[in-house]
Amino acid sequence: MPRSTRQRSAIHNAINHADRPVSPTEILDAAQADVPSLGIATVYRTLKLLETAGEITPVELPGEPPRYEPAGKAHHHHFHCRLCDRVFEVEGCPGAIKDILPKGFTLESHDITLYGLCSDCN
Amino acid sequence: MPRSTRQRSAIHNAINHADRPVSPTEILDAAQADVPSLGIATVYRTLKLLETAGEITPVELPGEPPRYEPAGKAHHHHFHCRLCDRVFEVEGCPGAIKDILPKGFTLESHDITLYGLCSDCN
DNA sequence: GTCGTTGCAAAGCGTTTGCAGCCTA
DNA sequence: TAGGCTGCAAACGCTTTGCAACGAC
C-alpha cells in the first residue's frame, strides 16, 4: 500500500483542482507551491502510480504530449482550441463509429478530437 | 529547387508503396533496400521536405510518434491495432460530429482513432 | 528501524543539428 | 566547380532509472 506523502497529495491536488487536462510540467509548477523541492521525476513516478491505481486518466491528443485528468468521468471526448491551445471536455459521442469499421477488424475503443475555436476565442 | 537523389526517391517510394501510414524507422528499413548506407537523419530531413512540398501528410495518433502517408487522399480516419501496433486507413466518417459540439464553439476539423484488433491479429 | 519514497544526475529514446566530405546539376 | 545533400556523431527535449539520503509508519 502506497504511503501518504506531501509530494503525492500536492500532485493529486494539482490534477483534481485543475478544470482541464494538465501536463506533467503544469502539475510540477502547481504542486511546487505546496512542496518547493519537488522534482519532475517524482511527478512522473506519481503519475504512473495514480494511473495504475485508477485515480487519473491520461489524455492523449494527436501530436501532443500527454495531459492528465481525474478518472471516473463519463465517456467523453476533447476539443482542442486552435488559438488558446486549451483542451475542453466534450460530452456525448456520435454513436455510429462501428459503421466505418473494416471487415475482419474488432473495435474495442475510440478517441475523437475536435479542433476549432472555443467560445472564448470565437 | 531540390535535387533528385537516390536517397530521396527511395524514401518517396517507401511511403507511396506502403498501404498504410509508416513510421520514420519503417521508412528507413524499407528504403535501405535501395540505399543501404541511408541514415535516419536523411529520412527525417526528407520527410520534412516532402511535407512542406505537400507530397506527404503526417498521421498523428494519440500517444504515438508520427507516421506518414501520401497526401491527397479523401477524408478518412485511422485504426490502431493493439497487438501488432500497425495503423490502417478507415474510409468514411460518422457524419454526426457537430452534434456534440458545445455551444459557442466553432468546429474546423476532427480526428477519429479506432482501437482494437486488425484482421491479421483477430 | 524498515523499507518505501524522494531528489539529483545520468541514461534512454526519438528527433534535430553541426560539420566535413560527397554528388547532382 | 558550386552548393545542395548525406552520413556520422553530438546535441536536444522529454521521460525513465540508478542510487544514496530521507521520512512515513
Q: Could you walk me through the main structural features you see in this protein, from its secondary elements to its overall organization?
A:
The structure is a homodimer of 122-residue chains. The first copy, chain A, is α+β, with helices and mostly antiparallel strands and 122 residues long. Chain A contains 3 helices and 5 strands, in the order H-H-H-E-E-E-E-E. The first copy, chain A, has helices spanning 6-17, 24-31, 40-52, and strands at 56-59, 67-70, 76-81, 87-91, 106-117. In chain A, the strands form 2 sheets. In chain A, strands 4-3-5 form a 3-stranded mixed sheet, with no helix packed on it. A two-stranded antiparallel sheet of chain A has the order 1-2. In chain A, strand 3 and strand 4 (87-91) form a beta hairpin. In chain A, helix 1 packs across helix 2 (24-31). Chain A starts with 5 loop residues before the first helix and ends in a 5-residue tail after the last strand. Chain A binds chain B through residues 58, 60-63, 66, 77, 79, 82, 88, 90-97, 99-119, 122, and chain B through 58, 60-63, 66, 77, 79, 82, 88, 90-97, 99-119, 122. The structure holds a DNA duplex (25 and 25 nucleotides).
